[in-house]
Amino acid sequence: MAEKDLYEPLIPILKAEFEDNEWEGYKFEITSEGVFSEEVEEKHPIVKEVKNKFDKQLRPDLIAWNDDEIIIIEVKDDPFLYEDLYQGRGYAEVLGQTKVFLLSDKNFNTDQQRFLMRRQDMLNYGGVKTFTGLIMLDNEMIKWNEYPY
């Protein structure tokens, strides 16, 4: 399954996760093409500013947002790579946000998981916390490596 094919089926799973954990009121958007709703740009003017100043290079796969924050959601259809940890963080940092969800239908391999257990700082750096999880479409759930709530 291609990465972009995971976006639509992932949104209801994320909505359920949020509602089950008292994160109600978040809206979700597919933003992989660099297009954000007018409502997001109105509530979070930094989005429009970054797009204008950096030639529309702001392309997180998905976002969850409310009036107070934007959560960056990066989706992968391959096992996680080193650079995946920094892609979402980069978007969060430029927008002044603090949470990134890095999700894949394939998890970190065992060696990577052990490494990250020793190097938690790689998931929590510069005020940005990255939460990773395994997308389980058949079960309509996310198996979080560390719960974000």
In short:
36% of the residues lie in helices and 24% in strands.
On the 0-100 scale, what is the average pLDDT?
A: 89
Run of helices and strands: HEHHEEHEHEEE
Q: Determine the N-to-C terminus distance.
A: 28 Å
CATH architecture: 3-Layer(aba) Sandwich
Major pleated sheet: 7 strands, mixed
Proportion of residues in helical segments? 25-40%
Rg estimate, integer Å:
15 Å
Unreliable spans: none
Structure description:
By secondary structure, the chain is an alpha/beta fold. The protein has one domain: Dna-directed Rna Polymerases I, Ii, And Iii 27 Kd Polypeptide, Chain: A, domain 1, CATH 3.40.1340. The chain contains 5 helices and 7 strands. Strands 1, 2, 3, 4, 5, 6 and 7 form a 7-stranded mixed β-sheet that branches. A hairpin with a 4-residue loop joins strand 2 and strand 3. The longest helix is centred in the first third of the chain and has 18 residues. It is globular.
Keywords:
single chain, alpha/beta, Dna-directed Rna Polymerases I, Ii, And Iii 27 Kd Polypeptide, Chain: A, domain 1, seven-stranded mixed β-sheet, 5 helices, 7 strands
